[in-house]
Recover the amino acids of this structure.
């Protein structure tokens, strides 16, 4: 129940924030890209690699700040060896761990080519037994052209276990 309430509060805050910014919007950006990550924390015991899709839409609040929404898809590949994690100890094929993040996003631009920011929201668990959790993704990005961004990020999902990873991503701006 607490998770559903949290998701509804995040969605309400994002909606109110965007409607209040509507008068100040001077630019918009649709962003799509991919990222690859190396898990650590609890998940690193049974996964060595993650790959994902990033989608977002940002509105210019000022020359230095963007705010928006983000989503995507994340898939951590499981090593299908013996799994000994919490109450689970078994052998066999286990599904990859998959999330669909839904978040509010903000970016600060100290210079045109450099940005700092974060996505904060909820990661919906897709595979069986995955309940999802609070999603936090701080990032640093660098423009490598006027329509392409290279970024590094830290992903943290507070689930029944610690899903943490470092990721390198490539975004295309439209």
């Amino acid at each position: 129940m607490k998770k559903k309430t949290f998701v509804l509060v995040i969605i309400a805050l994002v909606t109110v924030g965007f409607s209040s910014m509507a008068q100040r919007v001077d630019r918009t950006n649709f962003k799509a890209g991919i990222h690859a990550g190396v898990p650590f924390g609890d998940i690193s015991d049974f996964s060595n690699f993650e790959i994902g899709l990033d989608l977002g839409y940002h509105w210019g609040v000022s020359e230095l700040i963007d705010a928006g929404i983000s989503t995507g898809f994340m898939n951590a590949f499981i090593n299908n060896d013996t799994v000994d994690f919490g109450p689970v100890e078994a052998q066999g094929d286990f599904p990859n761990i998959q999330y669909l993040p839904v978040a509010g996003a903000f970016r600060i631009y100290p210079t045109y080519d450099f940005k700092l920011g974060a996505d904060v929201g909820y990661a919906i668990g897709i595979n069986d037994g995955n309940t999802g959790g609070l999603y936090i993704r701080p990032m640093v990005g660098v423009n490598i052209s006027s329509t392409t961004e290279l970024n590094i990020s830290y992903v943290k999902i507070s689930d029944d276990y610690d899903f943490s990873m470092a990721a390198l991503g490539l975004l295309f701006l439209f």
About this structure: Confidence is low (pLDDT under 50) at residues 18-26, 86-91.
